[in-house]
UniProtKB/TrEMBL annotation:
Transmembrane feature ranges: none
Sections of the chain in a coiled coil: none
Xref: CDD domains: RNase_H_like (cd06222)
Composition bias type Polar residues, residue spans: 12-21
Organism name: Miscanthus lutarioriparius
Protein's name in the database: RNase H type-1 domain-containing protein
PANTHER family per record: BNAC02G40300D PROTEIN, OS07G0513450 PROTEIN
Compositional bias segments (type: Basic and acidic residues): 1-11
Span list, region Disordered: 1-21
Residue ranges of domain RNase H type-1 in the record: 30-94
Cited SUPFAM superfamilies: Ribonuclease H-like (SSF53098)
Native organism taxonomy: Eukaryota, Viridiplantae, Streptophyta, Embryophyta, Tracheophyta
Length: 108
């Protein structure tokens, strides 16, 4: 499976995004954060997939106090990396939903 369209809340301005398949021995970690300026709250989510596109681990949660959108994004990455560590995942590619070209590869 090479790519999947990403569903967005606002269907009138939906832009298809694709998921890039990692090499066979590497897991792909995608994470995203959300920030709500009015309440200074947010949320985070991540999914870890194998080369076949199947989810191995996923998670999401709320952030009760967030300074800005970058902090929410950072928290999503932190939680995703903690999950890879706690599950003993060695070789990963870390990307995010909006910037597939900003990937980093890590190996233990």
């Amino acid at each position: 499976m090479e790519s999947r369209p990403k569903e967005e809340a606002n269907k009138s301005s939906r832009i298809p995004e694709t998921w890039t398949q990692p090499p066979r021995d590497i897991l792909k970690v995608n994470c995203d954060g959300a920030f709500f300026a009015e309440t200074k709250t947010g949320s985070w989510g991540f999914v870890i997939r194998g080369h076949n596109g199947h989810a191995v681990v996923a998670g999401s949660g709320s952030l009760r106090a967030v300074h800005n959108a970058d902090c929410a994004e950072a928290q999503a990455c932190i939680v995703a990396l903690q999950a890879t560590s706690s599950h003993g995942m060695g070789k990963i590619i870390l990307g995010n939903w909006l910037n597939e070209h900003d990937e980093c590869t890590f190996a233990r």
